[in-house]
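My current task is to audit a protein record that another person submitted. Alongside the sequence sits a line of tokens, each denoting a local backbone shape. Where you disagree with what is written, explain briefly why. This is what I was given:
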Amino acid sequence: MAGGTPTGLPEGPDKTRAVKAMFDTIAPRYDLVNGLMTFGRDRRWRQATVAALGLGLGAVVADLACGTGALSASAARAGLVPLGFDLSAGMLAASRASAPRVRADVASLPLPDGGVDGVTCGFALRNLVDLDAFVTEMARIVRPGGRIAVLEVSEPSNPALRLGHRFYFGHVVPRIGAALSDRDAYRYLPRSVAYLPPAPTLIRLLVAAGFPDARRRALSGGIVQLLTGTRESPSQGAAER
């Protein structure tokens, strides 16, 4: 996995099993807890993610690690055609989105090369075992000229905001989760930020995979980041090399 091995957190197959079991457990109240702990801002973040794709009506979008389908629903409201993929059967069962959804490993998708116009992914990078494989798979399934928009947690660059965010995410969020859902899961989720590589590393991964214009945008003061990119054509990539 890019970014090294966070101390005290599961890796490899152990991580896959732990993450799947955790999301199966918290699926029934996942949307409720998300809305409360973000004060409803998660809806605006999803809207920004869909808008960042810049795709036309009817474009087919693979929503990877789709969870309960909230991002798929945002895409559908924008006139796109989402297809949801997630490894957690519990999350898929809890989905209220009307989009088709498939249980699948997002690093090995049942989609043809260049089979979709775009990809969305919300708050899942830190739960993946192999970021390189995931980014490579995104590049495989997105057509040349297609777009990706990946939403993930982050930390504010402002020291005071960062301190407050760390306290809230590390101490308040686990209490909300314990009261409404599963204590262990919401103790793990703040710690899982340690899996994330630094922003420049994420951008380099995307550029190397075939998204040469990859960029990062901070949202809500930097507590969330939005990674976007356009899939280059094979001829474009060969010419640039």
About this structure: The longest strand covers residues 142-153. The chain has a mean pLDDT of 93. Residues 12-240 form a domain with the Rossmann fold fold (CATH 3.40.50.150). The CA atoms of residues 133 and 157 lie 29 Å apart.
